[in-house]
Structure formats: C-alpha cells, structure tokens
C-alpha cells in the first residue's frame, strides 16, 4: 500500500494488555462488543497512535477532537513533568498559584471583544454547566431574576451534565435520564440535505432558521429567558457548519431582548477552524465562550468559560469579603492543567498552527470532497480542519455501516476515525501536512470502495 513509512521506528511493543477487561465500564462504547475484540492503543507521537504490536495508526480525530498540537509534544510533556515536580496541586479556593492567572490572561487575550475573565472547570461538560449557572446567577444579580429559561438547539451536544443534556438536542443522550432541567426550549438544527449537500465551509442556506428564536421568545416573553447556547459549528452530531449569517441573526435577536448568547467552543476553540475561537472566524461576539479539549491539547483535563467584562463586573458589586459566585471545582485551575495549557498555547503560537489550518483548509476540503462519488456516500461537509462523511444507513441497522467503517479503518487501514450515527467524522491534529491529508483520503477511498 501507499501508506506513509511507519514512524514507529524504535518504538518496540511494550505495555502489557490485561487478560481481564471486565471492570472498566467504558463510556459511550458498546462494552460487550469492544471487549470481545478490543481496539487498543499504547503509545502516541505527533500524528500517530501505536497499537500494542507497534502498528502506527494515523490519528484522524486528534483523539476526541482535542490533541490539536499532535501527540506527546516535547514542550508540553516537559512542562507537565516540571510542574508535577514543583507544585503538584494547589487549591484555587481562597489561594492562588501564578500559572492560573497567566493562563487566564492568555485565554482571555485569544477571545474576542471584551470577553476578559475566565472561570476554570475540568471538562467541556463542566464548562457548559458553569456557563448555564453563570447565566442564571448573572440575571439574578442584575435584578432580572425572572430570567431563568435556557434555549439550546436540536442536534446540539453540550456534554453530559444534567444542564448539558437538557439544552442538548440528542435524543439518545436524553431519553435514559428522566425529566431533565425544566424551562428549556430548543431551536431547530440547521442541516438540510436538499439545500446544503456537499458544501465546503458555511452553507448559503439556513440563516432564517435563527428567527425561530424570536418565536420562542414571543411564546414565553423575553423577561423569562436567560440565555441561548449553541455550538458555532455543531461537531458531535455530524459536523454542521453555521449557515452564512445565521450566528449574526441569533446575536441580533439576543441583543434585542437582553438574552445572553453562549458559544460552546469546546470543539471549535483553539484552532480547529483556523482561529483561537470560531467567534472570530464568524465575526460574532458572544457573551460567554465554553472551552476545553484543545486548551491543553488534550493532555491534562481542563475546561472553562470566558465571560464578558459586564458579566464579571455585575458580580463584583457586593461586600468585598463575601464570595461572589458559589461555584467551583476542587481541580479548577489545577497546576498541571495550567502548565500544560501554557505550553500548548506556546506551541500553537510558535508554530502558527491556526494559520496552518487556514492554509490547509482548501487542501483538506478538496481531498475529502473527492470521495463524493464512492458507494454509499450521501453527503460530505468540510470546514476548517473538520470533515464529515454521511453514509447511507443499512436497512434496519442504523449506525452499523459507520461502525464497520470505523472498525475496519483501524484494523485494515491504520486510521482512527470517529462515528456518530452513520456519519464518519474527521478532525486531525492541526500539525497535519499536505501529504498526510492525502494519506487520510487514500485510506478512506480504499475503505469506502470495499464497504458494503
Ligand atoms: N461541548 C461540546 C461542543 C463538545 O463537543 C463536548 C465533547 N465532545 C462537550 C461539550 C463535553 O466535553 P467533555 O467530554 O470534556 O465533558
């Protein structure tokens, strides 16, 4: 095959695989089928994972859309090691360590407009629940305590906390968990295959769907609505870039009614779409931005929320010795995460990785869209360094074709992809080269040609 020369080189087989895989209840995984025939990973470097046998597998997904700088990058590894040896842990309640303040400043500097204060959590899910709580508490402190309703969107993914699944729009993530949060509405999603098939970048059709917000606000009255939360680009439900003008229209309606606009940039932040945040790509300034994943290039768990100055300021008006926001996590601004983040942000800047994404975007779009005439391909969407390939579902077995595609990509084509329903999603590390983009497209072509 035309596969890249294996960079495994001296990486000999190592880690021992346990005989008993039973105790680990794996997240978002069909446990029984995985444990019968596991897909194991033991090492990683740059664009590649390595299996226990030492096989190099191209990482087509940056882990879970998070290892933006590539794997096991020396400066990030060194920063984590040095931090662990110097200050392993420090509380962020009532005490501080210097890197927490530095990394907050660095993240605030990447954010648009007057988004200039950062609240730290440890994951995307915690970032989302933090933002929703801040939205309601902010309305309280500014004397608008009747504003408690939250508005999400169909096909939105905002993590797995009760707040996140309530504003989220994925049936399977909601239906097992009872009544969820009260007072939540959903905008329609923005995907329409007839109007948008095989779009590169942002589709022309769909900006008018933002006007549904006006209808929801009219139904409940603006005085009851706290916030709208959307992913600027919906990622986990199959990569849905925003229709041109859609986010501007949401912003305008929120402004008209005093409603906060929250962007969940857990995937779209830190370069995935060629900018620090997608808000910059789209020229829309939200009131809060949720982030996670790429903030540490996936190396140490970290998430958080960047908020506009007026939101922070509104909390700072009470007596100085009283806690302003009764919220936080034991591991908020964990020293290892802060050190990892500072190092990852340095790599992004020093290697101009966000600029690299913009330079690669047309190459990437061309390579992936070239697969459009292969069997079972219904649609392809690309934006930044993201792509989705919708496959026709097998009759009576929704998801089975994509599941087989994911499994065979890994075992036969040395490529890691992600799937959602019958959609293949690709989000490689931002360090990917033109040649490696070609390799991914070749692997997918060989797979799709033989997938029945
Ligand atoms: N929001 C979005 C947009 C996400 O894509 C994700 C994770 N894929 C989350 C929130 C949740 O992040 P985590 O898994 O770190 O809780």
TrEMBL record:
Identify which cofactors the protein needs according to its UniProt entry: pyridoxal 5'-phosphate
Task: Give GO MF terms, alphabetically.
Answer: adenosylmethionine-8-amino-7-oxononanoate transaminase activity; pyridoxal phosphate binding
Q: Which InterPro entries match?
A: Aminotrans_3 (IPR005814), Aminotrans_3_PPA_site (IPR049704), PyrdxlP-dep_Trfase (IPR015424), PyrdxlP-dep_Trfase_major (IPR015421), PyrdxlP-dep_Trfase_small (IPR015422)
Q: Which GO terms describe its biological process?
A: biotin biosynthetic process
Query: Record keywords: Lyase included?
Result: no
Q: What are the UniProt keywords, alphabetically?
A: Aminotransferase, Pyridoxal phosphate, Transferase
Q: Which domain of life is it from?
A: Bacteria
Regarding protein family, the annotation reads:
Belongs to the class-III pyridoxal-phosphate-dependent aminotransferase family.
Protein name as it appears in the record: Aspartate aminotransferase family protein
């Amino acid at each position: 095959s035309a596969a890249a020369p294996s960079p495994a080189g001296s990486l000999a087989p190592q880690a021992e695989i346990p005989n008993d895989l039973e105790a680990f209840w794996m997240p978002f995984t069909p446990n029984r089928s995985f444990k019968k025939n596991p897909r194991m990973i033991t090492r990683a470097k740059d664009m590649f994972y390595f299996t226990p046998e030492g096989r190099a597998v191209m990482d087509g997904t940056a882990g879970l859309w998070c290892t933006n700088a590539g794997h096991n990058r020396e400066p990030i590894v060194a920063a984590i090691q040095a931090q662990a040896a110097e200050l392993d842990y420090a509380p962020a309640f009532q005490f501080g360590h210097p890197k927490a303040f530095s990394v907050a400043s660095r993240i605030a500097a990447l954010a648009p407009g007057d988004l200039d204060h950062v609240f730290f959590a440890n994951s995307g899910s915690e970032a989302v629940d933090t933002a929703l709580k801040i939205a309601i508490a902010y309305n309280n402190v500014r004397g608008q305590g009747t504003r408690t309703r939250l508005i999400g969107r169909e096909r939105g993914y905002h993590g797995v906390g009760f707040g996140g699944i309530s504003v989220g729009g994925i049936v399977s993530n909601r239906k097992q968990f009872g009544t969820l949060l009260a007072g939540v509405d959903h905008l329609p999603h923005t995907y329409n295959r007839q109007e948008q098939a095989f779009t590169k970048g942002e589709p022309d059709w769909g900006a008018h769907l933002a006007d549904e917000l006006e209808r929801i606000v009219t139904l409940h009255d603006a005085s009851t609505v706290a916030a709208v939360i959307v992913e600027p680009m919906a990622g986990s439900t199959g990569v849905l870039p925003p229709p041109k003008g859609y986010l501007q229209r949401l912003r305008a309606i929120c402004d008209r009614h005093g409603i906060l606009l929250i962007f969940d940039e857990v995937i779209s932040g830190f370069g995935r779409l060629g900018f620090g945040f997608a808000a910059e790509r789209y020229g829309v300034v939200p009131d809060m931005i949720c982030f996670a994943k790429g903030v540490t290039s996936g190396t140490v768990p970290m998430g958080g929320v960047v908020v506009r100055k007026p939101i922070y300021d509104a909390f700072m008006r009470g007596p100085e010795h009283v806690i302003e926001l009764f919220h936080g996590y034991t591991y908020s601004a964990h020293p290892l995460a802060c050190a990892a983040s500072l190092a990852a942000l340095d790599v992004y800047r020093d290697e101009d990785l966000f600029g690299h994404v913009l330079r690669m975007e047309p190459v990437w779009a061309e390579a992936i869209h070239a697969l459009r005439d292969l069997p079972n391909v219904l649609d392809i969407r690309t934006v930044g360094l993201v792509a989705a390939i919708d496959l026709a579902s097998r009759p009576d077995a929704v998801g089975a074709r994509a599941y087989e595609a994911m499994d065979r990509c890994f075992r036969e084509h040395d490529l890691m992809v992600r799937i959602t329903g019958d959609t293949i999603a690709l989000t490689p590390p931002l360090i990917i080269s033109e040649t490696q983009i070609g390799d991914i497209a070749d692997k997918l072509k060989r797979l799709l040609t033989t997938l029945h």
